[in-house]
Specification:
233 residues, alpha/beta, Ribosomal Protein L4, Chain: A, 2 domains, 28% helix, 14% strand, elongated
Length: 233
């Protein structure tokens, strides 16, 4: 069992939370984490890069000067790749390249939980008793992060209803905010620390963060939509 300290907003430890490693994969699987990271990164590529060949750039095809008698090297048109303003030798002419690859649902979910386990093992998860603010206050949120020793990039995962916490953290340099149900391996590995409150973390561990508030069914992790027949009808 992993004993995770719970802090208040002043940085004082007020409680602990016991987390079973087996619910997060047991051990850190580095190969799986790399696979999930590379696939997610590749799926974000737009794939719309293209360049112009010598036939696509603007310019004349006239031979610049005669072949012999000038003392210069022989030369052809001005649009050849070895001249300034010319085309590209091996131009990207495809209208769109698809870099998407897929990871099975079981592996993807395990990678998300395993990334959290890696953060817990390294002591890079800072859990607070609550992240409730009466109003959006960037200075208060920044002071709270400093109180627990966060001096690098961090990801703040909160309940989507906690709008004040989102607005308080989003303007701090090196801090990114996401909803707790959108927590994934790519975002966890891209940040040094994870900041979360106790209720949100428990909802992620017991999978209740993917429940609808209306029909209490599990949302799809991919689309975020309700899976009940009532909404699909």
């Amino acid at each position: 069992m992993i004993s995770l300290p719970i802090y208040d907003k002043t940085g004082k430890q007020v409680d602990t939370l016991s987390i079973d490693e087996q619910s997060l994969g047991g051990t850190v699987r580095f190969a799986l984490l790399k696979q999930a990271y590379v696939i997610t990164h590749g799926n974000q590529r737009q794939g719309s890069a293209r360049t112009k060949s010598r036939g696509s750039v603007e310019g004349s095809t006239r031979k610049l000067y005669k072949q012999k008698g000038t003392g210069n090297a022989r030369v052809g048109a001005s649009r050849v790749p070895n001249r300034k303003g010319g085309g590209v030798a091996f131009a990207k002419t495809r209208t769109r390249e698809d870099f998407r690859t897929s990871l099975s649902k079981t592996s993807r979910r395990l990678a998300n939980r395993n990334a959290l386990l890696a953060k817990l093992v390294d002591g890079e998860v800072k859990c607070f008793a609550d992240l409730n603010f009466a109003a959006p206050k960037t200075a208060e949120f920044s002071a709270m992060l400093s109180s627990v020793g966060i001096n690098r990039t961090c990801l703040v995962a909160v309940d989507p209803k906690n709008r004040n916490a989102m607005r308080s953290a989003r303007n701090i340099e090196g801090v990114d905010v996401c909803r707790i149900e959108q927590l994934n391996a790519f975002e966890l590995l891209n940040h040094r620390y994870l900041v979360v409150d106790k209720a949100a973390l428990q909802s992620f561990l017991d999978s209740t963060c993917w429940k609808c508030c209306s029909c209490d069914c599990e949302k799809s992790a991919d689309s975020g939509k309700c899976g009940s027949k009532k909404e699909l009808a």
